[in-house]
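Continuing the batch. This is chain 6 of the set; chains 1 through 5 are on the previous pages. Same settings as before, nothing changed between runs. Recording input and output for traceability.
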Amino acid sequence: MNRFTRDGSSPRRVRRCIALLAVTAMATLAACGGAGGSGSGSGDEPIKIALIPPSGGVFAIYGRDTIKAWEFAADEVNAAGGVDGRKVEITAVETDGTPAATVRAARRAVTQDGARFIGGIITSPEVAALQPQLPSMNALLLNSSAVDDPLTGEQCNANAFRFVQNTRMAIGGVASSLKDLPAKKWAIMAVDYSAGRTSAKAFTKAVEASGGEVVMTQFAPQPTADFGSFITKLQGSGADGLYVHENGVDAQAFVNQGTQFNLFDSFKSIVSFKVINEPLFETFGQKVDGFNADLGYAHQLDNPENAAFVKAWKDEFGSDPYHVEADNYLTAQALFKAVEDAGSVEPKDVAATMEKLSMDSIVGPIEMRGADHQLQRSSYFAGVKFADGQLGWDDITEIPASQTTPTADPACKL
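Output for chain 6:
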């Protein structure tokens, strides 16, 4: 487990420590620094945030970019004097991404480093495991990645807030464009864990609502290196449309092998979900030309907050931000506003203001729904086009939250 702390009093200065997952972990973490979990919430108390991304596997690149976005947001606000005079301090603990390891890391971050806010968790199973533990930790979870619907449904928690679109919101954006696609008989290829099954179910409903049908649904375990048998079945499905929900290196493997076996030539329409993003443009290239994709964020969004963010990000890193970086920056901005509005870093005080959060942001106006702690924000749908030697988005369509967001799940009891 790798751990490092960013000192809020010194932007861009990082102290790195290596911790062990064995019995020495507690001593090592204490040596790396941090006060205990209790605090008065006094006006000069820093905002302590623990990030817990995976250090390897399918989501490693997203973990690194999550940390980068939070550091960028912290450095930006610290350089301006902090949040209501408070400095932001970030501790990152990279785990193997399993739910049990994530819960242990969160508890250590709270008890050893005094973290009051937890972010950077990538997958829905990790979030589902952690949410019930939050009240006993007296900490808030800021979810900017995990999309599974039950996290703001039957598994919701008063100490957890989601800032990314849930699966039904994202599929709602896709659904609005299905009527314009020529395919009517669809095959589904999805990752075999909760979010993949939720998205497959939501996409099936969207297809049926548009007058089409789903003729095959397949789920591949994560990770899957060889998609050969899945591809063979897809080729024999009789479908003229393909919906794909795969992540990271699994998505790369599926696209590479599908191209090798001419799979994508068999379909009139291909819709990808969580498959294509800017870091993979060079890797995918012409292989995904003509695909359609959900977008949680696009750097081309036309509003003053986003223009300032994109310029500052590009000045710092030399590239435009993509959805992982933008979603985590957005989450940080929301936290900073909630802390400022509360005048406190006490989790109960910040939760009370977060429930009423409303602000202009890099994705336009946003509002937190108090009934289930799901952020209301637009979704996007775009074509994928290879032109002039480069891959990019084509015809980005914005679908407002009012059209994509289902009513709060009555199973959510906060």
